[in-house]
Design a protein that fits this description.
Two copies of one chain form a homodimer. The longest helix of chain A has 22 residues, at 15-36. The termini of chain A are far apart. Helix content of chain A is 64%, strand content 0%. The first copy, chain A, is an all-alpha fold and 202 residues long. Chain A folds into two domains: 15-67, Homeodomain-like (Arc Repressor Mutant, subunit A, Orthogonal Bundle), CATH 1.10.10; 74-195, Orthogonal Bundle (Tetracycline Repressor, domain 2). At the A-B interface, helix 7, helix 8, helix 9, helix 10 and helix 11 of A face helix 7, helix 8, helix 9, helix 10 and helix 11 of B.
């Protein structure tokens, strides 16, 4: 199974195979979660060789991004947060994600999120948020031990609402506030959820 | 034009007229907002007498709730908040709306919200949030003067995100947290947006 594949752009043709792999990936990620969905099992469901999945889509994270029709690999963004001290995560997340939403990458990202919100089964969206977005945050904010999952999910609730009001509903004045204004107002909300004293039973 | 109509349940038949009124109402509310959309203009667009609109749907708020397919008149809930001191609004809102979302009224309310999120033009949803939900809150939290609209919209962003994560995505642990736990964790977020010291230019 090759891993160091070179992805020299999408090939013409073979779109049926690509679509079959993406369909299988969506079903598998939704059914068993990101970690348990192996490239091998997705390849088997799509009736192709695992090497072809890697060849077309690269890493499992990249495959998931493609299955969600995300224009960028979310892991690239999450990697940026990994080097930020926990005490600065709140404002940093706002300063990072809001400009992405507002950029050329924004429209397809928001379209993907809207499509997930509209689907009958939100399992794929849940898998994405729980297994990819929040996974690396949870252990970092697990103080006192046992509170990390709720802290991360509370932050996700604020961030999801900011996305919905600013980019989907385009609700003013949220839609017209600057990144700095949002960092200064919503950033501390995330920070409190991550590291503040919350009345959570461990 | 009668106003003291008695609404003795939905009549059989006339469903075409009701549907025409609701379609006209949706278009009009989305186009000009709640305040400027008169019952008269909606009746004219639907080709019926204004009295018939009142007869079928009651007040303009009730017509709007019907147009949004909401199972309850949102004004009934907003009226409860009007008598709560501003300093207690954050937790009170959580303690009021989360049990409604979790109740039998919840499923149709969430279905309506999902349908609004999925529609190509979010104007109807914007009108609902700006002209109905936030209207009475804004002047109450306008301190220093000029910040009320942003304070109310920031609170709406957190509340929308709580609805999306708890009821649409059903994201654990947000989905399984108790009302009291949410009141104690998310309530202070709303309260800070309403009355906290925020770096907002008046």
């Amino acid at each position: 199974m090759t891993s160091g594949n070179t992805r020299s752009g999408r090939r013409p043709g073979n779109s049926g195979t690509r679509a079959a792999i993406l369909d299988a990936a969506r079903l598998r990620f939704a059914a068993v979660g990101f970690d348990k969905a192996s490239i091998r099992s997705i390849a088997t469901a799509a009736g192709v060789d695992p090497a072809l999945v890697h060849h077309y889509f690269g890493t499992k994270h990249e495959l998931f991004a493609a299955a969600l029709e995300l224009p960028i690999d979310p892991q690239d963004i999450l990697d940026r947060f990994a080097v930020i001290p926990v005490s600065e995560l709140g404002e940093t997340i706002i300063r990072t994600v809001v400009p992405i939403w507002d950029s050329d990458f924004g429209a397809p990202t928001i379209a993907a999120f809207r499509s997930l919100l509209g689907s009958e089964d939100p399992a794929l969206a849940r898998t994405f948020i729980l297994d990819v977005v929040l996974k690396s945050i949870r252990p970092r904010v697990d103080s006192p031990p046992g509170t990390g999952a709720r802290r991360a999910a509370l932050a996700a609730s604020q961030l999801a609402g900011l996305l919905v009001t600013r980019k989907i509903l385009r609700l003013d004045p949220i839609a017209s506030m600057t990144v700095e204004e949002l960092a200064a107002t919503v950033g501390p909300t995330l920070q409190r959820y991550f590291t503040g004293t919350l009345p959570l039973e461990p």
